[in-house]
Each structure stands twice: as C-alpha cells, then as structure tokens.
Amino acid sequence: MEQQELKDRRSIPFKEQMTILKRILSYASPFKKQFMVAIGFSLALAVTNAILPRIIQVFIDDHLATGTATLRIVLLFAFIHFGVTLVRMVVWYCELYLFNMASEKTVQHIRNALYTKLHSLGMRFFDKTATGWIITRATNDTEAMKDFWHVFLTLIQGVLGVAISLGAMFLLDVRVTLWILLFAPILLVIVRFYQVYSSKNYNEMKSKLSMLNSKLAETINGMAVIQQFRQEKRLQKEFKETNQSYYDSRFSVVKINALLLSPVINFLYTLAVVLILALFGYDALSSPVEVGVIFAFTSYANDFFRPLTRLMDSLSLFQDGVVSSSRILTVMDNEEYVPAQEDNPDSVITEGKVEFKDVSFSYDGENEVLKNISFKVNPGETVALVGHTGSGKSSIINVLMRFYDFDKGEVLIDGKSIKSFPIRELRQRTGLVLQDSFLFYGTIKDNIRLMNPSITDREIVEAARFVQADSFIEQLDGQYDAKVVERGASFSSGQKQLISFASTIVRDPKILILDEATANIDTETESLIQEGLQRMRKGRTTVAIAHRLSTIRDADQILVLDKGRIVERGTHDELIERGGLYKDMYELQNLGLQQA
User: How far apart are CA 501 and CA 517, in angstroms?
Assistant: First the structure.
C-alpha cells in the first residue's frame, strides 16, 4: 500500500497523460452522438460570437461615422443584434444541456464499471489495499471526473473561439493580427510549465486525501475500541496531522493556480489591447482609422484571450482529472481476479463430497501457510479443523471457497476438480457461516433472502424456525419485516448469527462451512442454536473450524493443524485416548472453564 501511495505522488509525464486521456475517453464512446451534436452547437456558438462585433462595427463605420444613420437603420441593426443574441442564447443552452447530459452519463458509466471491477477482484487485492483508498477511488476520483469532462467543453469552445476570432481579425487587419500572435509562444511556455509542476502537486494532494479517508474509515469502524481504550486524543492528533498535510498540499495547488492561471492571461490581454491601440494610433497619425474597426478588433482580441483564460483556469481541473483518471485506471488494470473457474454449465454439485489432495498454499507466493494438506469428507459427514492461531484453519476455508487459488495439489468436489465448477454453482451449493456475521441495511426478511426473488416468504419463515431464529424474530415489532440498521447494530451477536444461519440454510446448500460460528456467542445463546446447527449439518458435508472444542465432540473426523500441517486426525475419543496436541488443548479449555 505504501508503494502505491508513493506511485500516486509522482509527477505524470506528458506522454503518459495522453495515454490516460485516450483510455478514459473510451468510456464516452456509448454517448459519442450526443457529444458530437454538442460540438456542432459549440461551432454555431463561436460563429454567433464572431458575428456580434461585426454588426456593431458595420453600424459605426458605415452609418454613425458617415452621418447616414436613421431611425429605421438604428432599429434594423438593433433587431439584427437582438436576433443574433437570441439565437446565441438558444445555441448556448443546447450546447450546455447536451454536453452536460452526455458527461454525466459518462461519469455514471465509469463509476458502474469501477464498482463492477471491484466485485471481480480477488481477496488478495482487498487484503493489501486500505478501505479508504478504495472508497476514494469510487467516490472522490469519480466525482472529479464531472469537472474533468467540462474541461473538454471548455477546450472545444476555446479552440473554436480562438480560431474564428483569429480569422475575423485577419479579415480586418493582417498586420495587427500577426503582432497579436506573438503572445502565443508565451502562452505555450506557461501551459507547459503549469502542466509539469501541477501534475506532481495534484498527485500528492490526491494521495493525502486517500490517507485522510483511510483515517476516517478506520476511526468510524473502530469507534467502540477507541472509546473503550480512551484513544480519542491520540487519533484526533493523528487526524489533525493528516488533515494539515492535506491542507498544505492543497495550498500548494492554490498558489500555483493563483499565479499562473487567470492573472497571467489577463495581463497578456491587457498588453494585447495596449498593442492594438498603439498600432492603430500610429496609423492614425498618417491617415484616418475607422472607429468601428478598432472596436471590433478589441472585441475579437477579448474573444481570443477570454477562451484562453477559461482554458488556463480549466488546466487545474484537467490535472485533477488526469490524476483521478490515473488512479481509477490503476484499479481497472488490477489483475488480482477471483480465481478462474471453467465455464462448464454441465458441472453441478450433486452429493457434496470434498477431498483435499496434497494441497499447498501461500498468500504471498513465498511463505506457505498450508503444506501438503490431505483429507476427505464424505456426504453427510462433519470434519472439524482445530489448532492454534495461524495454524492454517481459515486458509483451508479460503481455498475451499475459492477466495484464493491454491499453489499445489488438488481440491475435489464429487470427484471433480473444484476449478471445473462455475463460480455460481460453487457459491449456490456452498453455505458459509462466518464468525462475525454481517447484516445489510433493510429488513430481516431482506437479509435472509439476500435479494433472491425465487425465495418465498414461507421458505424464509421455515428457515428461521429450522435454526431456532424464530424465537426472537417473532417477538420483534414487524417480525420478519423488522428494520435492520447498518451492520445489524441493534441485534446481539447471537441474534445476528442466527439470522446468518437462516440466510445460509434457506438456500439448501450441499456443503456447509462453519468458520468458528459460535465463537462470539454467549453460552445461553449457544445452547439455543446447537440444535439448529445439528439440523443444518444433517445430510450435508460440513467443514467446521472449532474454537470451542466441546462443540465438535460428535464430528466424524477432527483434524489438528500446526504451522500449516495436519499433525493429528481422528475422532474426539481417539484423539483423547492417543494423547498429544488435541488432548492438551481440550484439557486446557476444560481447566479454564472450571476456573471460570
């Protein structure tokens, strides 16, 4: 993660910026027709902007200066000017409406693609990536894309406005226009300098924002622990330091924007107006100069520099957008996918027989956490995994659930490689109950059904009764329609676990995986759900990680793990009689219970 943050802070070379720009523009392809129509209106807007000064110039030079202006002529030019202005307003509205609508749809498309991509990534990505970093990509960076697309509109308006105003100036006076063009190289140097310097600043600012979001997410998730151990002042100090660092990086961006954007362009525009007046004033010493031409020329000079001012102001948004695009593409380019499965719809799990053959696995590709694991679980049998922390119990579950791909050996279900089953079939036929149950915002019914429309209300009630969850659900206001707040905070650990049991059993899985499912449940609640667990296990292949050894005495086989290896196996009575690590663990737990 630290390497990623360092990469985020670097300055992005111009060539790489263009590559990023090309890739991010591809997300606009579904809406290119709307963008093209909007560009057409941009051209029409530039033309109408060029016509308005010309109307006034003709009126001044051909009528006011010659004394031929009549009421009819005044009204005619006023009507023409008003009509062109009205057309300009309509064209401007159509341009903004179409472009903004297309850009909003593009940003929506990017955010949906990013969210879909996150769901395709494997657990390795989430293990080593901070939650705040991911949230920043999906929220702040995609939000920055809205302003980024407005930069393109400004760019189009600027290019068309500059080109047409230059053309109009050439028609009026070639010599003066060539003098005005001398400012172009100065502008290019300023733009280049800004692009190089601001890129690094925006990268650093975004990196600090990710750190700020990470701190905030960590604090909110761990608020109970923070208050329990009185860590508020320490974390407030750390947050202030991170926030100050973010402020400093933003202030650096503000300083360079304040110096190199509008003030510089306005200064150059002032110099250009002085130059225009000087050149025409010099000409006036030898021959008369038309006042209307001077007015039109200064108007076109304004039309020449005004889009450049907006473009320079938009460079900050452009750099922000390039950095945000780069960070979004970093996620889109990540290849730590969920382990691949063969797309074979004919492969179905019918019995649920599970077998590990010499399976070895490591999280980092170097340090093995599972070493030559072999065992077999027949349909209807229960295998319990026991061992000290770090022995490899959860890693076996991770491999069996295909959260991670194993390095060596084979994992078989019904005699077929686990890789041969479609991931949907594997998830549907495998029920996983974790130690910490997660409930979604909604109702109890929603959390049991998990948005599966094929599950009826009757099946939900039957599943709740099957696991003994009905005893507390039916006492709630609304019963199965009772509200569930975020993460199920209004329910006890035992109640959340019972709801999790119901959501698992309602799908009638062939394989049941219990990851210390009773570890965080009080003794009274545990005794209540033991019958439900026994019902769940009946007729199903069960792999259970056991925290309390007393809960797996009836297991058909107990595997004792130590440092990634199976060091003992057998039934409870066999392992007690044999002596060894399991017996020591069992007696130690019983001693602790007696002392308690």
Answer: 9
Quote the tokens at residue 134. 């991911």
Residue 167 is classified by DSSP as H
3-state class (DSSP) for residue 244: helix
Residue with tokens 């609640």: 525
- H or E element in which residue 359 lies: strand 354-362
Most confident of 279-288, 383-392, 522-531: 383-392
For the cut 90, the answer to whether the pLDDT of residue 86 exceeds it is: yes
Tell me: pLDDT of 334 over 60. yes
Domain ranges of the chain: 15-332, 354-595
**Three-state secondary structure string covering 82-128:** HHHHHHHHHHHHHHHHHHHHHHHHHHHHHHHHHHHHHHHECHHHHHH
Does the structure show a pLDDT above 60 at 78?
Answer: yes
Secondary structure letter of residue 401 according to DSSP: T
**Residue in 205, 209, 107 with CA at minimum distance from that of residue 151:** 107
The Cα–Cα gap between 85 and 363 comes to: 67
- The structure tokens listed for 163 are 């080109």
| Whether the Cβ atoms of residue 77 and residue 55 lie closer than 8 Å to each other | yes
User: Which superfamily does 354-595 belong to?
Assistant: P-loop containing nucleotide triphosphate hydrolases (3.40.50.300)
Alpha-carbon span 93 to 329, nearest angstrom: 33
Angle between helices 142-172 and 32-59 (to 10 degrees): 30
- Across 294-303, 420-429, 581-590, which has the greatest mean pLDDT? 420-429
Q: Is the dihedral of CA 209, 213, 218, 224 positive or negative?
A: positive
Enumerate residues 6+ apart whose C-beta is below 8 A from 451: none
How far is the first Cα of the chain from the last one, in angstroms, to the nearest whole number? 43
Instruction: Confirm if 127 and 41 have CB atoms less than 8 A apart.
Output: no
The whole-number pLDDT of residue 1 equals 45
The per-residue pLDDT of the chain, averaged, comes to 78
Instruction: Give the closest residue to 482 by CA, choosing from 519, 518, 442, 433.
Output: 442
Integer-rounded Cα radius of gyration of the chain: 35
Higher pLDDT, 346 or 353: 353
**6: pLDDT strictly greater than 50:** no
Task: Break the chain down into helix, strand, coil percent, rounded to 5.
Answer: 65, 10, 20
Q: Express each pLDDT in 150-170 by its tens digit.
A: 777 777 777 777 788 777 778
Phi, psi of 157, deg, nearest 5:
-60, -40
Summarize pLDDT for 284-299 with one digit per residue, the tens: 667 666 666 777 777 7
Class of the domain covering 15-332: mainly alpha
- At 376 the three-state DSSP class reads strand
pLDDT at 259: 64
Which residues, other chains included, contact 141 with Cβ-Cβ below 8 Å and sequence gap of 6+?
Answer: 206, 324, 325, 327, 328
Is beta strand 483-484 parallel, antiparallel or unpaired with respect to 442-443?
Answer: antiparallel
Buried b / exposed e along 319-340 (16+ C-beta atoms within 10 A)? bbbbbbbbbbbebbebeeebbe
The answer on pLDDT for 196 being more than 80 is: no
Residue 197 in this model has a pLDDT that exceeds 80: no
d(CA 385, CA 562): 11
Cβ pair 91, 52 in contact under 8 A: no
